[in-house]
């Protein structure tokens, strides 16, 4: 299921593999955000039509999982006010993409085989599970170093998904670059693996294990949403009551 030059979706049995392609940094430009949203819409539509539980694994080619927003595009506006407007546009555009992930009716896994910085780190955190390559790549929030405040939904995501106050402090108030082993200790990453191939294989394996549980996808999505009430409020997600009893 190709979506655009920026990402592709491949169905492997019960697993959807969403791959970021194209340039090495996978900057979250409006075009890439739109491409990812289109891909997730395809995944959701196919999962609903098949009436079976699936899982999503997101991977990225090259050195970066994602290096955040496309600041070069913002700066190319020709004026400071234009740059600020473009940054604001990307900030607002990312919100529905994260809402798509949080409401997707299946488990989601990010295989982080390269750097995940700023908004790219947020993209990884939007998944249920994060697996990371041991030998290369860092998690990094660059806003303090480049002189930008954080959108409120960024900090809300950190409060609801990163339990360690020390981790939040080091990432947001020291702009530390955290490697895989430390990220596991902080509870940000679920497991680390030796190399790109091993990380992706582990993510696929986990996805298959979760899909085999044959949970109701809509119920799964609603329970996920209930875990992050403040994030859902900021993203405009409304909870629903679903009874799909298997008793």
Automatic annotation (TrEMBL):
Keyword Calcium found: no
Keyword annotations: Lipid metabolism
Catalyses which reaction(s): a (3Z)-enoyl-CoA = a 4-saturated (2E)-enoyl-CoA; a (3E)-enoyl-CoA = a 4-saturated (2E)-enoyl-CoA
CDD domains named in the record: crotonase-like
InterPro entries hit by this protein: ClpP/crotonase-like_dom_sf, Enoyl-CoA_hydra/iso
EC number: 5.3.3.8
Highest taxon of source: Eukaryota
Top enzyme category: isomerase
Alphabetical GO biological process terms: fatty acid beta-oxidation
Short name of any one Pfam family annotated for the protein: ECH_1
Membership in a protein family: Belongs to the enoyl-CoA hydratase/isomerase family.
Protein name per UniProt: Delta(3)-Delta(2)-enoyl-CoA isomerase
Native source organism of the sequence: Nepenthes gracilis
């Amino acid at each position: 299921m190709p979506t655009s030059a920026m990402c592709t979706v491949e169905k492997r049995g019960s697993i959807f593999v969403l791959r970021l392609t194209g340039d090495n940094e996978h900057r979250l430009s409006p075009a890439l955000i739109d491409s990812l949203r289109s891909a997730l819409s395809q995944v959701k539509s196919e999962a609903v039509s098949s009436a079976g539980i699936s899982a999503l694994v997101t991977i990225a080619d090259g050195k970066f999982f994602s290096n955040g927003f496309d600041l070069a595009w913002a700066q190319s506006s020709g004026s400071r006010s234009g740059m600020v407007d473009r940054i604001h546009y990307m900030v607002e555009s990312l919100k529905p993409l994260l809402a798509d992930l949080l409401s997707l009716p299946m488990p989601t896994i990010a295989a982080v085989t390269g750097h995940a910085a700023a908004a790219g780190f947020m993209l990884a955190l939007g998944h249920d599970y994060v697996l990371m390559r041991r030998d290369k790549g860092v998690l990094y929030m660059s806003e303090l170093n480049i002189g930008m405040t954080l959108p409120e939904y960024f900090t809300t995501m950190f409060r609801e998904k990163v339990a360690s106050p020390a981790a939040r402090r080091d990432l947001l108030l020291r702009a530390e670059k955290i490697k895989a082993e430390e990220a596991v200790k902080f509870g940000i990453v679920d497991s680390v693996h030796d190399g790109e191939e091993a990380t992706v294989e582990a993510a696929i394996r986990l996805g298959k294990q979760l899909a085999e549980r044959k949970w109701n996808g809509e119920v799964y999505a609603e329970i996920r949403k209930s875990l992050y009430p403040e994030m859902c409020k900021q993203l405009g997600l409304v909870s629903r009551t679903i009874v799909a009893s298997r008793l």
